[in-house]
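Continuing the batch. This is chain 6 of the set; chains 1 through 5 are on the previous pages. Same settings as before, nothing changed between runs. Recording input and output for traceability.
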Amino acid sequence: MSTKTRLLAASVLISATALTAAPSYAQSARDSAVVDELVVTARKRTESVLDVPMSINVVGEQAMQNMGAESYTALLGSVPSLTAYQNGPGRTRLSIRGVTNGGGNDNDTQNQETVGIYIDEIPISMGALNPELALFDLERVEVLRGPQGTLYGAGSMTGTVRMITHRPQFNTFEGKAEYGVSSVNEGGDGFSLKGLLNVPVVNDRIAIRASGYYTKTPGYIDNVTTGEKDVNDGLARGGRVEARFQVTDDFTADLSYFKHHYKDGGRPEDLERVPGLGRDYTSADGYDDKLDIYNLTLNYDLGFANLVSSTSYFDRTTVNKRSLDGLLSVFPGVKPSPLVDTTDSTYFAQEIRLASQGDGPFSWVVGAFADKKDIYYLNTVPVPGFDAAMGINSNDFGAPKDNPYWGYDDLEVKTYALFGELTYEIGKFSVTGGLRYFNWEQKYKLYASGFFNGAIPSDPPRRTSKEDGFNPKFNVSYDLNDDFMVYAQAARGFRYGGINTPVPQDVCAAELADFTRTGTDPNTFAADKVWNYEVGGKGSFADGRVRVNGAYFHLVWDDMQTQRRLDCGFGFRENVGGATSDGVELEITANPIQGLTLTAGGAYIDSKLSTDVKNLKAKEGDKAPFVPEFTFSGSAEYVFPVSDDLDAFVYAGYQYMGERFTEFSPQLSTYRKMDAYNVVNLRAGLTHEGVEFSVYANNALDSRGVIRALPASPFDPEARIRIVPRTVGANIRVAF
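Output for chain 6:
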């Protein structure tokens, strides 16, 4: 495969996109039977996806529209090896290649992500509260499978999801407006309004691109006790504005601001004891997420290399409510009220890197990274009238009035890193070595009080945990011909450790004494690591009509961060046990005739424990939770002319999600099986001179597949979170 030729083609493609108005996708599909050449920046330099010797899935803008994808979670069924632990919008924990142990509190500040999430240069992943930004005015989404710790750090232990936006264009005035309506089976109605505008301010020097969205998502969960309908309806609104300055011919500055606000009226939980899609709690359990993101990216062309500086800052507040009706019902005269979790986060990140360019046999990227994260998590149970009903004063328990529980986590995290990758091409071989040095420090303080916490408020001193080390990567590839390569790779991924919430001494004394005798420290847990070994191949054939990408991987997961449950009712994280994950990923895209695009992709993953894990009551060979053994997706799109200036298109997509389980061990009372399910999406429409009208049916067969089973607890009933029921709608888009 000729790297120089592909890089030249990539540069031409980017230049053409920047300087000309793009044709409608219908026109492009009708005029060409060759699979489009995809350009990516996964290795922090511009390349053809066929030249990157690693497993990458690229979802383009039109593919996202065809799937009706409003956020990255909509891609779960179509990207092989990408799965998730879902608890509602904004409360999703991604995993790749079967590395997950499920469970855990959404708001736990010690949740360490295993998949990094970026929008352009900006890292936005955050444990189990990953923001689900609207997929509007995106050029593509890149899903990088396997550890990406060399270039992206600890949060990318098993992979990285990168959302790449369209950038301002200097010499093109263009815009788009979109309006849509939708209706959910057994639910409500929704609508969306989106728009964007690209304005050249000074030709070749200054341009501004602004986009915005306002989307009402229809609900489908009814409250049979209060009579409320569609309580889980949501509203997402936000926008992005970016200014690009061509300061000199070699120096570009991009200044961007992104605002996102999502709010819903309740979790999408379907209680098993309530007929249909319903619930019977009286208290609300909605979610509110406000996020502001700022970024300044500077790019200086030095000739032999590009110097890039990215400075990011985000400020986020989430309010996550959880119904406590079951718990509070045991206290006579107490009105049911929700638990209210409020998390305030600020995050600053700075990266500076130098990436080579040119025709030499060596290509490289070196850089430095630093970030600082401050998180204040307030965990409260405000219950009006609780003190009077119980004959107590919550102040005596260290909590505000009528708060049977009140506490906070105060967390500060700092990271420094140096990284680099070097590639050497010799003939048809290409060898890459990468290394990242990281230095991480966390300071943590917790306060807990209230009637539910016991007689004495806990106010431990601020604790500190530290970690540093190296993260290596080695890759070798071979060009079988100009159109196909094979590769082998070994890479290490990791995620940081942390500090546990203190276990109460008064109620857990006996068990804590056992840990003291055995030398176990329940206060902290260390990093866990993954070694990923893979071989793969990618390329095109049949004169460019078919593109294929496939890989086999073997992962070894050591020092697993697992949750020990104590008989006293509390627990803590510890590093116990190990797991392996073996699998195959395969994706094919084909244009057999003009106007027809076919895709197919799937994964087989065998993720299981490699040792017995006592604290999970699990045995060697037990399957990883929330990981399907088989997934498959396929689509067909046909674009054809109706007349000289009118095109029509039809699209059908299919997704299969295999069965999954909620725990490693079938011996646990919380173990549940989630059956396999199928999803069919349909879309059809007409395009005429920049105007597109389409109708669609997402989940056309109205599958009620379960994406998360919630086992009954002493205070909560059995519940399920299902995929969104059949949704039908229509969109009109106008481009100018």
